[in-house]
Amino acid sequence: MADVIATDTGVGVAAAAERVSALFARIQDSLAGWRDAILGDESADEEGTDTATTPAAIDATVGALVIPLLREDDPLLVGAGFIAAPEFTGGDDLHFSWWLGPLEENPVFGSTTEPSRLDLASRSYSDYLRDFRSLEWYSIPQTTHRTHITGPYVDHLCACDYIVTVTSPVERDGRMIGVVGVDVYVKRLERELLPAMLAAGRPVVLVNEAGRAMVSTDPAVLVGDVVATGEDAVRCAGTPFRLV
């Protein structure tokens, strides 16, 4: 009987890991489509200027892509868009084609009921973004040329809560012009992942590469806690996450 229970538990944990992988694969597929949309039109105007990747053109393209997703009932995303490389803008100005979904009440920005464009000028402590190329969600896609998942971490810029950020490099002619990305509340991920994790047959914790907890069925383990991982941890394919 013990062997049967152990086998069922193993199958349940593997199924939960597959659920995690499928969710993040869906997000990464969306980012790939956004990259293609940004780079898809390579036409030039009469003066030979590439109109497809001007800031105004990208703003229009990105807004059309992400705003409908942020307006969905119970949206998965709390933020999404494109962040331009300084080399693309031709100066030191920040260019965030980034939209926020409806925000729940928080002590800094209150609440909103409709998607809104991120206004950095209204964020009094956004100066750290002047050197955003050093931040994980930008620097790792730039170095690896691959999609990267950052978090969980507390987003003090917008959500004032634990989030996970997924970013993917947008490259053209061997040059990175920025990243497309999404922010997801950890508590929203809980609703997506907890049913499969609870069906695993034993307490399990979803941790990132550093062992930091993101979603847990163990009430003693909170988001952000560091959990010891062993050889029995189950990897979630296509992500840096494991179930322990």
Can you tell me about this structure?
This protein has 244 residues and is of the alpha+beta class. The chain folds into two domains: 2-20 and 189-243, no CATH class; 46-188, Beta-Lactamase. 33% of the residues lie in helices and 23% in strands. It is built from five helices and ten strands. It has helices at 2-39, 55-70, 86-89, 136-144, 186-198, and strands at 79-84, 96-100, 116-117, 148-155, 161-172, 175-185, 205-207, 213-216, 234-235, 242-243. The chain has a six-stranded antiparallel β-sheet, sandwiched between helices. The protein has a four-stranded antiparallel β-sheet with strand order 8-7-10-9. Helix 1 runs antiparallel to helix 5.
Question: What does this entry show, briefly?
Answer:
This protein has 244 residues and is of the alpha+beta class.
Sum up the structure in keywords.
244 residues, alpha+beta, Beta-Lactamase, 33% helix, disordered N terminus
Q: What name is given to the CATH topology of the largest domain?
A: Beta-Lactamase
Query: Please, what is the average pLDDT?
Result: 85
User: What number of structural domains do the residues give?
Assistant: 2
Give the helix proportion (percent range). 25-40%
